[in-house]
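Aim 2 progress update. The chain analyzed this quarter is reproduced below.
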Amino acid sequence: MSTTIQLHSKTTPKLGRFFVRGDASSKSDCKIQVGQQSEVSVCLTGHAEPEETANDISRVVQGSIVTFTGGLEIRNLTTGFESCTFRIKNLPGDVEDAELRALLAQRDLEVARFYLSGTKKTAEGTLDAELVTDKRSREKLSSMPKNLKLRDFMLEVEASTIKMLEGMALSSMHNATILTTLAECSSASFKIDESGRSALDPDQVCPICYDSISNPFQLNCGHTCCSACLHHFLDSAVDINQFPIKCVAEDGRCQLPIAIPTIQQFLASASFERLLKAAFDFYISKRPMEFKFCKTPDCAQIYRHTSEDAATTLRCPSCSSEVCSACDEAHNGSTCEEFKRHKAEEEQERLNDAWVAAQEGRVKRCPQCKVLIEKEGGCNRMECRCGAHICWKCLGIFTLNTIYPHLQEVHQGYYG
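Predicted structure tokens:
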């Protein structure tokens, strides 16, 4: 008897970014894919970036470019505040990856820092390509000619923010599939002959359910568990909210992170996206001194906190609000120290006003010099040290010759 297990996803996918890594002159038979919503952003051939392995994927989560590795740990994160989005218009409809790589490399741009986020086919049959890079490439990008030539096509480069991504043919920025480059893979069925269990150590048990193993699946660390148990283990990781996700064999001593291709193989696409978001949230929550949220309510963008020595004014790519990277407040035109001093003065003023209000009319401010005056008794003519003659009832300012007639005529007496 044999049992068939239908896994949700894929065989191990090829992973990489939009541009094939390596020499700009290297060959590529890949063309940019457009025209359909797909989990596959771009299918590429070539060499991956040296530090990026098949166990790494790059995605956009809440506007940040995130590189996930085994167990969905985060290896690198570029916040939305640190990124730059731009569009190359009027590309040939059959443009190849190598051509775009060469175009950027010829202008001394680091190709490895660019990610394809979407494409849009125009009525004329040309393509508009949306790319994301970090701010290290922004200065060079801004110095590029606005009009470039590829074959006989005049290209237009338009820099903007993440908001430009709306309406592109692939995913929106908040869908974490954008920056991942996957080779098209079909769903896989695995047939396990029940009689094959005899090949297993009869004393071997599943490290998840602690029962004999059925439909075995071997992890990258070499340990084996039930396929159904592994699916449940990975599917429940969102609720457990502890990353990285590790093998629990040998009474929890293995601790080797589970490879991303394995996680993708056992989870449906929507479940995998939720897991990526949970891993991102977990990473940020553990680093409250490094990452801060945009000050605008409901804005999901994050930025990197800095020391006062490295303070800079940041602009949110989603809501355009500004914030200081050091003191996490908006104070354009003043230093952090100046802002803190001003804020302290405002806070002290607020406390003083609250104290005055609690005195039930016994203490008031001079309407001329704003100093606090306390009335302990006597008539309603008060003389401040600034020289002002003040009506205690209405806080009007008078001369010595006019204040008494005012008290008599307006307030019907000098007292009370």
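The radius of gyration is 33 Å. The CA atoms of residues 369 and 389 lie 12 Å apart. These observations will guide the mutagenesis experiments scheduled for the next reporting period.
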